[in-house]
């Protein structure tokens, strides 16, 4: 596990207002959280001349008033930052991601490996697009590497209706 202070040490997802996810989506979420906690890069830049308390950080993700909310606290629970991102830039990518995931889950049950691999490559491409969008939207608020962005995008998909 990464022991850097520039990381997430806890992740909470507030999905209380959402219908239960499918078993496949729930599994993706569990894997993303596990992988994030094992290895991630999450840095908060100083803002307006203020120092940022050192990490590691706890992240609470939620959707409130049609905005994606990142609520950041220190490991001990002291609030550090909260920022809201418009869901608009994510909607089409999330929709595309859900559609390709459905195709992938269906393909795994009935198609030959070559066709499954082609669908999986498309799925990864859409996933990467979502991760890059997240990195762009976080600019000036938080810095994450591409692997962290990919895993966070998986969690965002759990919060945004596809």
Mean pLDDT: 89
Which value, in Å, is the CA radius of gyration?
16 Å
Helix content: 40-55%
The run of helices and strands is: EHEEEEHHEH
Domain count: the total is 1
User: What's the main sheet like?
Assistant: 4 strands, mixed
Distance between the termini: 32 Å
Low confidence ranges: none
Separate helix tally: 4
Query: What structural class results from the helix and strand content?
Result: alpha+beta
List keywords for this structure.
alpha+beta; 162 residues; two-stranded antiparallel sheet; 4 helices
Task: Please give a structural write-up.
This protein has four helices and six strands, in the order βαββββααβα. The chain has a four-stranded mixed sheet with strand order 1-3-4-5. The chain has a two-stranded antiparallel sheet with strand order 2-6. The protein is 49% helix and 22% strand. It has helices at 23-38, 88-110, 113-138, 146-159, and strands spanning 8-14, 42-43, 57-64, 67-74, 79-86, 143-144. It is an alpha+beta fold.
Q: Brief overview, please?
A:
The protein is 49% helix and 22% strand. By secondary structure, it is of the alpha+beta class.
List the helices and strands and how they pair.
Elements: E1 8-14, H1 23-38, E2 42-43, E3 57-64, E4 67-74, E5 79-86, H2 88-110, H3 113-138, E6 143-144, H4 146-159
Parallel strand pairs: 1-3
Antiparallel strand pairs: 2-6, 3-4, 4-5
